[in-house]
Amino acid sequence: MKQLTTDPASLVPSGAPTGIKAQAAQAVPPGASVTALPKTWRPDGIGGGVMTVVIGAPGQPPVSYAAVVIQEGGRWKVLATLKMQTAATPSTRVS
Amino acid sequence: MRRIGAAAISIILIALQGLLVGSAAAAPAPPPAEWGQACGSAQLGLEKVSVALAQPLKDDTKNGKRVAYSPDSRGRYTPIIVVHGWTGSSTHGPDGSFSHRIDLTANRLGTVSATRSLIGQYQDLPGAAVFTFDYHPYSARWVDDSHLGPALGKVIDCLYRASGQKVILVGHSMGGLVARYAATHPGVTGPDRGGEISTVVTFGTPNTGSVVAMLAAAGIDIGGSVETHLAVVRMILATCGALASNEIETGSVCDTLTPPLRAFASDAGVALRSGSSQLAALKPWPKAIFVDALAGQTTFQVPAIGWFALPWATQSVATGDVIVTHDSAVRGADLTKTVSCSYQLNAFRGAADTLGMTVGLLSASQVADVPLKAFSGPCFHGSLMRSIELTNEALGVVAEEIDSRQPVTAASLRSAPVPAACQHPAGTLRNGTLPGIPQGEGVMGLAWTLFNEPPGNLLALGDLNGDGTGDAAATLYCNAGGVSWPELIAFYTRGPKLLGHIDLNDIGLPGREPGENASVHRLRYDKGAVIAEWTTQQNDDPAAVSSLDYTAKLRWTGRKIVASDITATTERATVDRFLTALRRGDRVAAGKLTSAIGWTVEAVTMQSLYPEAIAATPTCYGINGDFPQAAEQVVQSPFMDDASRICLLPTTATGNGARYIALGLTHLSFGQWQISAVLAI
Lengths: 95, 681
Description:
The complex is a heterodimer of chains A (95) and B (681).
Chain A: H1 3-6, E1 33-43, E2 49-56, E3 63-72, E4 75-85
Antiparallel strand pairs in A: 1-2, 2-3, 3-4
Chain B: H1 6-17, H2 32-38, H3 41-44, E1 50-53, E2 61-62, E3 65-66, E4 78-83, H4 118-123, E5 128-134, H5 149-163, E6 167-172, H6 174-183, E7 197-203, H7 224-240, H8 253-262, H9 267-271, H10 277-281, E8 290-301, E9 305-307, E10 310-311, E11 316-318, H11 326-330, E12 335-349, E13 355-361, E14 370-371, H12 388-403, E15 417-418, E16 427-428, E17 443-446, H13 447-450, E18 459-462, E19 471-479, E20 488-493, E21 497-503, E22 518-526, E23 529-536, E24 548-556, E25 561-569, H14 572-583, H15 587-591, H16 597-609, H17 611-615, E26 619-622, E27 645-650, E28 660-669, E29 672-680
Parallel strand pairs in B: 4-5, 4-6, 6-7, 7-8, 8-12
Antiparallel strand pairs in B: 1-5, 2-3, 8-11, 9-10, 12-13, 13-14, 15-16, 17-19, 18-19, 19-20, 20-21, 22-23, 23-24, 24-25, 26-27, 27-28, 28-29
Helix pairs in contact in B: 2-5, 5-6, 7-8
C-alpha cells in the first residue's frame, strides 16, 4: 500500500472505470499517510480479499476505507474501496 | 393408486410406443405414476440421473389439506419437468431447488403467506403432472454431457409419447441451458423438439453466461461497469467469510454466492464465463417454443464506493441476481418478469478494527440495517423460486398453457367474443349476452341463452381448425329492437377465440333472394366441418312465415368460413309426391301426405272431375304471392288458415267450372310439409 503515495497508478487494475488510472495521483491527498491494517484482511476465497486502509491527510481526520484487493499478473491491485463508517449505524440514505 | 407389476409396465410401454399423439379417438391417458416409471432413469439408461413424478409433500397444502394431482377437463395430464441449476437439486424434498415454501417478496411492506412450494403450486393445478429431473451427481459438467442435455431430451421424448401432450419445462440457472440444449436437438418429431415442448420457464438462467464466473479467470479485462459489479461481489464474499456455508437453501446472500463460486473451476463453470465458446455453440430456442424468462435485479446503492478519494461515477450497482446479470437472464425470451430489490450497502469499522458490512432496505423509514450474513431476499440467485412475484408468473404461464388445451364448451362460450351485427358493435359476452346495449335497442348473444333453452342443436362441438383441440360452432341471435335478424353461425377455437362467423343470409341458391330472417334448426359436427340446417323465407313469404329449408356444409379454411353442398327444400317436393301418388292411384301414399283423410277423398274427387289439373305442373305461391286473378280469393278461405304456401293446379274448365285446384301446404318442421287443404276455385 506504500505505493499509494509513490506510484498510485500501479495499484489500479486493468479494466478499472475509465479515468481512475489517469487520476490516481489525486486519490490520496498530498502528504497523507497510508496505513494498511493486516489484521483486518478478509479473504474472499477466490484469490483476493478486503482489508482496511487508513488515509491520514495533514490537518484532516483519518479516513478508513475497505479496500477490495485482487491479484493481477502476480501483483496486488486495488479494485475498489468503500469508505467506512466508524460503527454499524444507519448512515444518511441516498435519496 | 393401484400398483402394477413389471410385466404390466412392459405391456404399457409397448402400447404407449404405438400411441398416436393427438389422436382424438385415443383412450384417456393413464395416471401419471406409470409415466414416472416408464420414463425413469433405469428404463432410459440415465445412470445416476434421477427422474421421478414429484409426490406431494405434507407441508404443501391448500385450505389445510395436502395438495393432490387432478386431471384437466379432458381427463388428461401435461408433464411439467423441473430442472435444477449447477449447484442445486430437483428432487422434491428438503434440499430441492423448487421445493422451498414460497416466502419472499420484494414488496417492502408485504409478507407472504403462501402455503406451498413452486412444485406444490403446480401440483395443485388441474392437468399438471410434475416430474423432477435431477442430474446433480454430474452438475459440474457442461450441458452437452450425456447426463445433462441429451438425458433430458430422452425424458422429454418419453413423456411426450406417454402423455400425448407437449411438455412444459421449468429450469433454474444452468437448468434453463440444459433445457435449451435438449430443445434444440433432434427428438421424435423433427430436427428439434419444438414439436414436443410448448413452454419453457427459466429462473435466473445465464443465457450469455455468468459475469461472476469471470472471477475465476484472473486478469481478464471485462469492462468498467462489470468491474463495479464484481467489486461489490468480492466485498460481499470477503465479509461473508470464504466459502463458509454450503446451505444455499437459506437464501441468504452469502449462501447464494459461495456454492456457485466453488464450482467455477469445473467444466460448467468455465463454460459459463461470459463469451465462452460453449455458450456461443448453444442454438437459440426453436420458434415454436414459448419462453418466459424470470430474473432478479438486485441494485446495491453503495454511496461510499470509489478508489480512495476518487468517487466512482455511479454509486448504484445493478448486479442482477448477483450470480447472473439481468440481461443474461432475459436474453432470447418471448416474455420476461423481473423482481427488483434495492439495498444500501455500508461498510463499517467495528471494535478491534473488525470489518463489517450491513445491508439495509432502501427506503425512507428507519429500518435497522441487517448484518450481511443474515440477509436474504427474493432477488438473489438461489432465492428466485421463493419469490411470490416470480412464482406467480411461473404458475400463471403454465396455467394458461394447460387451459389453452381445453376444448371449447357451452359454458366457456358464455364469455366469448362476438362480431359486430344487428347494428351492435363487436364485444365480449357476459353470461351469454352482449352487455351495454341500451334498453329497447335490441339484444345480441348465444341463441340458446336468449331463448332460455339448453344448447341442444344450436351448438356443434368438434375440431374445426385442425389443431387437435375441440372447437365450437355456435348460433348467435340478435336484433336491433324489433324483428329478428338472420342468425349468425360463429366458429370458436380454444380461449374461446372467435375464428370467424357467417350470416345465414349470405348463403343461398341462385334465383332465391335472401329472406328477412333465418333461424337455425340444427348444427351438426361432421369430420372437421359443420352441417347447418336453417329455415328462411321464399321470395313471396311474409316475414313471419319461413318456408325455405336450407342445408349446407360449413368449413373453416384458415381465414374464413366457406359454405358448400347447399341444398334447399320447399313445399314443392311434397306436392310432387302427392300428385305422383294420386296419378298412380295410390291413395294410401297420398293419404300419408295430408293432414286429414278428408283431403285425400277431396283430391280423388277433384281428380275425377278435373283429371288434367292433377296431371298438370303446379305453381306455388306464398301468402303474399301474386296469385292469378281467378285465384286471388283463395287466401281468404278459412280452409287455408293453416297453410303457409298454396299451390295451384290449372283446369281446362270453362263456364261455371273451377279454374284451379288449390292445395294448401302447412310447414310442419324442417323439411316436413303436409297438404292441409284441397279446394276447387
